[in-house]
Specification:
single chain; 344 residues; alpha/beta; Spore Coat Polysaccharide Biosynthesis Protein SpsA, Chain A; 2 domains; 7-stranded mixed β-sheet; 7 strands; 58% helix
Length: 344
């Protein structure tokens, strides 16, 4: 199996060539360095790296982001070999060559998995923004995707060629790409394996190009995207459901009949939107998810009808008004059930 090391580089230090040699000594490999629009002032650094045997340097004419640089490296590997192994490492010296070699060995032991080099953030030498940011993102990752990791922002990662297509198709061009990859693994059932590595910060991580405000917002937006889509989908289908319920209630005068008729049509629309746009469920599991979604709809419909009937009678309000309140409560329950069971 041939091993590739992909290194996204933006305005690297002069020691880039030395780092490439050290990586190749620890892990025999083909190194792909991606110049992410560093500019003419860094041309000599990349030319020196490109003269090293087994090292290929690719260039972006302008800065396009770390995620885009990684995908440029992945696209270069696709089609080169049938059996390949990929290790992603940063250019700033934070990832030790021996750790890269250990991740490659672990990846060979866990085919079809994403192996992360996780750091220990308990030391006093760890910058506060790194410690705080990872604690927050780790907590959100566990709640959003069910993946428990102590380090979600590590750039040291390894996987085999079976994941190349997925890696190239994951959205995101900058630092949010690495978070998108973890969510994609959760959605596609790709195991995520944590391998402890040394925690190294060069000059308190001053050389990092991570912009705390803008890049943190982009990373957080990754976690918020699914709930926001779910809310929009639910609002649209709730309006459809309410209109259909009101029309059916005026025709039949029955809360149960109106709820059933409205829910069937609105649920069909909601399932299609949620499967394709919100939770991105796979087509091969569409039958299973449809059955589960149907069971959920029946349960929610029964709860909605019972609660609407009870609330409207108790407060002597119109069923339409009671339905708005009851379905708002059931909305939270529905999201959790769909995420954890229907489209898991």
């Amino acid at each position: 199996m041939k091993t590739y090391i992909v290194i996204p580089a933006l305005e690297p230090e002069p020691g880039l060539g030395r780092r490439v040699r050290e990586l190749q000594e620890a892990l025999p490999s083909q190194v792909i360095v991606v110049d992410d629009g560093s500019g003419a002032g860094y041309r000599e650094i990349f030319e020196a790296a490109g003269r090293i045997s087994g090292c290929t340097v690719l260039h972006h004419g302008a800065n396009r982001g770390k995620g885009c640089a990684l995908k440029t490296g992945f696209a270069c590997i696709k089609g080169e070999e049938d059996q390949v192994q990929v290790v992603c490492a940063d250019c700033d010296g934070q990832h030790l060559p021996e750790d890269c070699a250990r991740l490659a060995a672990r990846s060979a032991e866990c085919p079809g998995s994403l192996v992360l080099g996780v750091r220990d953030f308990s030391g006093d030498h760890v910058p506060w923004r790194s410690r705080f940011g990872n604690r927050i993102s780790s907590w959100i990752m566990e709640k959003a995707a069910g993946i428990r990791l102590s380090d979600t922002q590590t750039g040291l990662r390894a996987f085999d060629g079976s994941l190349l297509d997925m890696m190239c198709g994951v959205p995101g061009n900058r630092f949010e790409y690495e978070t998108e990859v973890l969510l994609a693994c959760a959605e596609h059932g790709v195991p995520v394996v944590a391998e402890p590595v040394e925690t190294v910060y060069v000059d308190s991580n001053e050389g990092s190009h991570f912009r705390p405000v803008r890049d943190s917002f982009q990373v957080m937006a990754v976690f918020l995207r699914r709930p926001v889509k779910f809310i929009l989908s639910s609002i649209l289908c709730a309006l459809l459901d309410l209109v259909l319920f009101a029309a059916a209630f005026r025709l039949t005068g029955s809360v149960f009949t109106a709820t059933g008729a409205a829910r069937i049509l609105s649920a069909a629309a909601n399932y299609c939107i949620n499967r394709t746009a919100v939770f991105r469920g796979s087509r091969k599991n569409a039958g299973v998810s449809a059955v589960r979604y149907g069971a959920l709809c029946i349960g929610i419909a029964v709860l909605s009808a019972l609660s609407v009937s009870a609330l409207s009678a108790a407060l002597r309000i119109r069923p339409e008004a009671a339905k708005i309140f009851c379905d708002a409560v059931l909305f939270v329950i529905s999201y959790q059930v769909q995420k954890r069971w229907v489209f898991r």
